[in-house]
Amino acid sequence: MATETKHDQIMKYIRSLETGSRISVRQTAKSLNVSEGTAYRAIKDAEVQGFVSTVERVGTIRIEKKQRQNIEKLTFDSVVKIVDGQVLGGKNGLSKTLNHFVIGAMEIDAMKRYIGPNDLMIAGNRGIVHRYALNEGAAVLITGGFETGDEIRALADKLQLPVISTSYDTFTVAAKINRAIYDQLIKKEIVHVSDILIPLSRTHFLLGEDSPARWIELNRTTSHSRFPVVDKKMKVTGIVAMQDVMAHPEAEFISEVMTPDPLTVSPTTSVAAAAHRMIWEGIECLPVVDVQTHLLGIITRRDVLKALQMIQQQPQMGETIEDLVSASLEDLSEDENDAFRFSVTPQMTDYLGFLSYGIMTSMIIAAGRRVLSHLKKGDLVADNLSFYFFKPVQIEQTVTVLPKVLEKTRRNAKLDIELYVDGQLCGKALLTVQFIDRF
């Protein structure tokens, strides 16, 4: 029987930690009686494997291992739409999912190590490559507007593997497919209400004709104080809370004391949007409904907060424009003086060559988020942004962002933000935000 190494012991120890736990080289070495060098190497290995992440200003923490998403939901039919393609054969295979794509700019012998079932071979006018790919179980995408012979079409129909033709060149096709894959990764990282809702089977609710005594019974059983109210068809008609029942002791039915037409969310609502709504309205739970307003379950502020914390701890696989913009914001802060800087790249400009208003908005919010993250743990949402002075900023100019916190409470904050180019004021804005780790 193989002896467990110190490295294995450390890896097992890291996996046993709760998500969000901080991991220190010194503490790990002390706890397991190993050298700090051994602990350091194991922690780095855990980071490579996806069990550990290093977060700026937080440290090294244990995270849920995030499996690298495949592109299983990208079908060959999706590829046809992405490249504006024409299906030459194998239409019955359009619903199959794409594994990965291979560019056929090599000899047949070299392709053998790359091509496999449900792959997509991207090639030009090379019939021998088309035939080989189909026989290996892969679909074919022909670039440059070329077509293929009847033999290849018949083989595609027989194997139910699409052969697609597009007028785009190989580079453009690869870029378009990569962009579609990347967009899917970003979408998959967004946590929706459906991911955290308490299903109907575990949701406590009241009927409109129930008596307030039924609310008291549920309150004692569950310790909850707020319940959705439904009709006999399970459509949400209201919500009832403790203050509603206590304020009307003489009421006979829940329908007399409930708040009608309550706020609801759908399963496809993002958790961040739901959190913002709960903060704004000051409520602790929201009914989740379908398009006909039938009750599907509820979400609570505790579940929303937990989900948002998990999102912050997970490594992000797909970068959005917001991420790319934020990454270019350089932190120049010293002591109590917050300052940031970025250079205007061609991608940040509008058609006139000036800094885009949208990019400027993103930069201001990113700067505000960084300033407030120093003062308060947790995330925030921008509530209002008002520009009251703004001058055009040219390409390649360097912008300095100076945010100043005017007011901060448990729930929100206001910041005054000034923008400078070459020492000259070029913008002033007022940013109001709400924190999403307090309800």
Automatic annotation (TrEMBL):
CBS domain location: 258-316
For this UniProt record, the keywords arranged alphabetically read as follows: CBS domain
Which CDD domains does the UniProt entry name for this protein? CBS_pair_DRTGG_assoc (cd04596), hot_dog (cd03440)
Task: Work out whether the entry's keyword set contains Nucleotidyltransferase.
Answer: no
Where in this chain does the entry annotate a coiled-coil region? none
Against InterPro entries, the record matches this protein to:
CBS_dom (IPR000644), CBS_dom_sf (IPR046342), Diverse_CBS-Domain (IPR051257), DRTGG (IPR010766), HotDog_dom_sf (IPR029069), Ser_kin/Pase_Hpr-like_N_sf (IPR028979), Thioestr_dom (IPR006683), WH-like_DNA-bd_sf (IPR036388)
Q: Keyword Mitochondrion on this protein?
A: no
Q: Under what name is this protein listed?
A: CBS domain-containing protein
Q: Which organism is it from?
A: Sporolactobacillus shoreae
